[in-house]
Design a protein that fits this description.
By secondary structure, the protein is α+β, with helices and mostly antiparallel strands. The protein contains 3 helices and 4 strands; from the N terminus they run H-E-H-E-H-E-E. The chain is elongated, with a radius of gyration of 15 Å.
Amino acid sequence: MCETLMSCNERPKGIIFCSRDGKWKEQLEKRLQTDERVTLTALGDVRYDVMRYVERRKDVKVVKLETRYMKSREKGLGLKVTVQKLTTHVCS
């Protein structure tokens, strides 16, 4: 068992590498159904598509956002964003 609740919840289930073909959107939808945190990574111009998609989604919040230059400068700037689905609570 896990020592703390935080360490149980923070374990990544795998990073989704985003590419131009858009298949990452399907993977993201599947992972968001389980209310877990999902980490997306993107290089080059795809990072704009990822941020645009996440920004337009009202039911998803950005938990963490990182950018950095890759070791190989030809790859350009990399994006790493962790998102989580917002839960809606119904008041009665």
